[in-house]
Structure formats: structure tokens, C-alpha cells
Prior knowledge:
Largest sheet: 8 strands, mixed
Structural class: alpha/beta
Number of helices: 15
Mean pLDDT: 94
Order of helices and strands: HEHEHHEEHEHEEHEHHHHEHEHEHEHE
Strand content: 5-15%
Distance between the termini: 56 Å
Low-confidence stretches: 1-12
Amino acid sequence: xxxxxxxxxxxxxxxxxxxxxxxxxxxxxxxxxxxxxxxxxxxxxxxxxxxxxxxxxxxxxxxxxxxxxxxxxxxxxxxxxxxxxxxxxxxxxxxxxxxxxxxxxxxxxxxxxxxxxxxxxxxxxxxxxxxxxxxxxxxxxxxxxxxxxxxxxxxxxxxxxxxxxxxxxxxxxxxxxxxxxxxxxxxxxxxxxxxxxxxxxxxxxxxxxxxxxxxxxxxxxxxxxxxxxxxxxxxxxxxxxxxxxxxxxxxxxxxxxxxxxxxxxxxxxxxxxxxxxxxxxxxxxxxxxxxxxxxxxxxxxxxxxxxxxxxxxxxxxxxxxxxxxxxxxxxxxxxxxxxxxxxxxxxxxxxxxxxxxxxxxxxxxxxxxxxxxxxxxxxxxxxxxxxxxxxxxxxxxxxxxxxxxxxxxxxxxxxxxxxxxxxxxxxxxxxxxxxxxxxxxxxxxxxxxxxxx
Length: 453
């Protein structure tokens, strides 16, 4: 039966009945937010045999999904088309249909304010939308990354304002998303899922539901613990990236190649895990999530010095890269002011079309503030989208990459190391290359016009 024609009784459903619906994969799953997290999750649930309703306020997303089209580069349209044709997936912006879902999974953004404090407005608005249609017997799961306590302190009171009670009338849980866009080795179904619930019944329900979707579930004692797990994962990465970014600066001053150091160090079969430096942090998780814990820690009169120091180091990286670029251009005998720079890569990481928190945007602003002009080439980003922090850059278009065009710029700055870029062409024709990703060395290319930053 198609997801948009559900006819089963939507009155009170006991825990045992709901568990059985999840186990038999007969439930309807509502997913709010059809972005980088929600869409892969929806396709995973549809492939597992569930009926999925994908909710999004973006009418274009809804229309494209219902036509069987993907708008995310690493999510193939044929997967969307198959789910729609099999009547396992339907998208809608009609939030009154939330009452049709046995489980509602929340996959909305949790950004920072300009003062680096949590912005839970999307979660709160979503919770109010659910509350308007909340019925007995539903499982509500927050997947958006946030600080410990959000599920209990923010989501639960909004839902319980309806008069329905968590653990009795509906069930509330947290299960953090673990998406890694563009990762060829791991997808939604092959990544273990941490689950924490508001009570034993909520935990059992969330564990049963996700147990049908992913290779393994990892139940923990509470929603707050599950929230802390996600933050810990991302803080671990942020701190270690900050460490190698700082080492990059130190070793560069000593004439030592940090990438060579890391490649040699990782041959140790224990006690070392390689992380790599870059031009700054991007994506929704690593640049943002650690500050959710920093903010929450203040409530307990605790200063998270380690996390904040890592944030300072990573935030400074675009400034360091631009200084290296300016020095390199000046050494080549051309004044930086008035120079033309070609930046390779606008996405925050290789091989994706994801612009969230991309350091490339900050690099453009810093370079142009120094009097140079910037064009960019990115095979995955034909046009820069609107962003909250860098609005004036929206609408710039990727320029073609040819030997003639590369030679016309005073310098090429490699900000993102996409695989489908002709680095040999760049190395042969560029007057100067400033490489923040060690991409030319990895491609076996070397000359005296290449500078690492």
C-alpha cells in the first residue's frame, strides 16, 4: 500500500503492537527534513520495506522527489525513482499528514548563531508542528546533533504541552545521525546507530525500528547520553584536526612537510590515528557541534578550554592560508593587490556538492579583502548558493578549467581536493600553485612553482 494512502487505525497503539509493526516493517515512517541526512535515511527505510513520508518545507524538493529525482549529487536519482515507483516513498509539505506516521524522525539543521551559541529554532518549530498533530502511540526521534539535554529539556515539553505524556501516550528518543556525505565505504545502512530513549519503552521502540534499518544498533542509557555520544565523536575529530593544523604551522616554519610526517607516523600499527590539515573546517558537524557542548557546559560553571582552543586554531586556518598565498605571490615578483586567483574547490570536502560551512567562502572573502580577485572552479558546484554568513558571494559561477585559463591567473589555490580535477594540467600550466590539501604531491606532481599551505 503506498505511503500516501495509509488507512490503518491511528488511535492508541500499545508498545507491543508498535514493536511488532516495526519488526514486520509494516509501519509508516515520517522523516522531517529531506536534506543530506533525511533523504539517505528515507531511502534506507524505503529499501527496508517501510512506507516513508518525507516532509520538507521546500516545495522544489518535494516536487523533485515525487518525480523520482535527487537534488544531492552523491544520492543517485535512480534510487529515488525506484523508491517512488515501488510506492515506498512519497514526499509532501503537508504537515497535517504527520498523524499518519507510526514514527517521526527529525532531521533538521542545528546551526550556531553569529555569537556561536546553539540555534534550535528549526528543532523547536518542527516540534510545534508535530505537537499540532501528535497522537497516541507514536515514536518521535530527534536525529539532529545538539547538546545533552535537548530531547528532554526542549523537545519533550513542547510535545507534552498537548496533554499527552512521554512514555505513556507517545514515546521519545534520540538517535544521532552519522552521515558522511560522499563516503564510498559507509552509508546509512552500514553505520551502527546509537539510540537513547526517554524510558525503557521508548528505547525498545527506537532500538527495534533502527534495527530494521542499519547493520547494528548501540542502545545507551538515556537520550542525553546519546546526544553526548554524537558530540564526542565530532569533538574528537575537531581537536585532532586542530592538532595537525597547528603542527602544520610549526613544521612549515622549520621547513618540514607535515604531510610527509603524518604519512610516516601512520605506519605505526598502534597508538596513532592519522588526521590531515586543511584550509579550515567545513560541513555541518565539525565546525559547529563542539560549541554546543561548550555552551551547555557553562550551565555547570565549566570552561571547555581544550574544545575552545581547538576551535580557535581551526577558525584561524583560512587566515594562515591567505598569508601563505600572499607571501607566495609576492615572492613571485607580482603585487598581491590586483592579482587574479583561481580557487579549486568550493565544496567543504572532496567529491560532494555540499557547501555547508565551507572554508572556501571565507578564503574568497579574505583574499578579496586584500585587493585580489577570485574565480573558482568546482565540478560539483556550478554556482555558489546563498548562505547565512556569505550572502554576497551567492550566484558566482564555476569557471572552466583549461590550460589557457589556468595560465591566465597569478596563482591557483587548491582548497578542495576533488578527484575529478586534472591536477596534471594545473601543475603544468599554473604560474604558481598554493596547495592546502597536498593533492599535487599525492598525484605524483612536483615543481618549484608549488607551495604547500
